[in-house]
# Entry
Amino acid sequence: MSGEHAPKAPTPRFAIFRAKDARDFEESGIMTTVMPREVEIAGSMAAVEAGMLEGTTVRLLFEIPGLTLTHAWFKSGFPLPRHSHNVDCLYFILAGSLRIGTEELGRGDGFFVGADVPYAYVPGAEGVEVLEFRDSNSFDIRLLANNPAFWEKAVEGVKARHDEWPGETPPSGLVIGQS
# Structure
């Protein structure tokens, strides 16, 4: 069937989702990683070894053909590397705060990032919870942190905050993905 597309799954006309049923984002398989460069591989491995993954929780809340909704919680001091995605992303701050560029954003604020636009943000003192809306069921992440100084600072930051992260709770008070 040359030139024909596979049948698209029907979009529901109505759907309910529950926070307790959210899936682990990594396990969902909707995001693939573009092969990072050597500096990014070494830096991210060092940050993970220092405990970086304990500073974030990301859950897929909802997915239908052509639309995903994700909840991400980045704890205070989490070193989110500069990166891009190959799809448009709309972010809504549910709780906490962040700094993106020179802008301080808090609860109820948000930002849009177009496809392939590099960005990073820094979670505030309470961390930040964001809802991420995407018009795709698959997308990539491309690390754009090819700077050894960034990764050295990231590892230092993780080590400095690591012991405090277990005591942090989401600033919204929501528990996502746990029955």
User: Anything to note?
Assistant: The radius of gyration is 17 Å. Residues 34 and 142 are 5 Å apart (CA to CA). The domain at 27-167 is CATH 2.60.120.10 (Jelly Rolls). The chain has three helices and ten strands.
